[in-house]
Amino acid sequence: MLVGTTLEWYDFFLYGTAAALIFNKQFFPELSPGAGTLAAFSTFAVGFIARPVGGLVFGHFGDRIGRRNTLIVSLLMMGIASTLIGLVPNYGSIGVWAPVLLVLLRIVQGIGLGGEGAGATLMSMEHAPAGKKNLYAGFPQMGTPAGLVLANLVFLSTNALMPSTSFDSWGWRIPFLLSGLLVIIGLVIRLHVEESPSFAKVVSRNSVERFPLREAVRVGVGRMTLTMGLMIANSAVAYVFMVFTLSYGSEHLDYDRDFLIICVSVAAVIWFLAIPYWTGVADRRGRRTMFLGGSVALLVWCIAFLPMLDTGSEVVTAIAFLGMGLIVPVTHCVQGAIIADIFPAAVRYSGTSLVLQIGAILGGGLAPIISSALVGDAGGSFGVTVYMVIVCLISLACATVLFRSASSGAPETVPVAATSA
């Protein structure tokens, strides 16, 4: 699952990096730099808006025909869409059709990733031996930073091999075209993955639901809303530090864009390496306390993060990014398992997809746009810091209420696994 998830996040983050640094010039050249960046980030957000569609469609069929086959289709959709993005003519060639085609392919990307997030987590978690549920569910989560690092390394390497004018003109297409090769590798691996044991049991008991989403929502709107709220801070903060800072740092603080990409990539490496440690802690000591502690740490670091970038010091800025790399994985690594544990196996793909993708829109999908709008052409990060603090407080409050209700034995409509597993 890790390899396939890494390739899908490679495609998704590659678009984010290009949206921050390239697409405003290639697809929105008639707008001011600030407006062009907002427009480019709007196309980035479109992928998030499409993700619930993918989550609903793939979730339905994942609960009906199995996790494995749906994950193969989602991988193909992401890889083909990314390859075609590398072939889309720019605004100077075909005018307004250029951003239109870009948005359409971004929608396909979003639908594909909407099916991937929940499915990969479920496949890993449902294969886990006793006492290793969080560790196994954390492996697909490692695909997020791994995909980010891979996307940034390919982006940096391509940029380093040619003059910047050539890269900005056509060289940026090479990393997208590489997706065609990577998807073949991921497809070969995914074809050899066995179906989830939990789904196999559902089939053997003749318990496959005809309309799994309808059954999934019986867990309760309140509980699902709290779970969505629980994840928005991690998602929003991650996309501020992974995507928004590339445009903010280069346009408003005059940092070299390669320096910023390296900082994000090193932070992502730390994030990747930290996930097995934190999921191990969750398996040994319970994930509730760890998640709440990580939420508080994220809140504190968000207060300091952008002011550290605003100092103009590369050393201080590097420390700010490294701190994000250490703190973000504490809550990120277990949120998939927390969400999946709400639902019984027969409807788990549908329910988990719905919560994950709507939460992703409210968190990560809107974060770069909101942050860019708060900064504006004049610059200034105070508003973005306030925004991050607010979403952290919302997630912390939702997590506290959710875990407390589970501990108190509040009645549930459907059986719910213990969230402290």
From TrEMBL:
CDD domains: MFS_ShiA_like (cd17369). The keyword Cell membrane applies. The chain crosses the membrane at residues 34-58, 70-88, 94-114, 135-158, 170-191, 224-247, 259-278, 290-309, 315-342, 354-376, 382-403. PROSITE patterns: MFS. Residues 1-407 form the Major facilitator superfamily (MFS) profile domain. Its main location: membrane. This is MHS family MFS transporter.
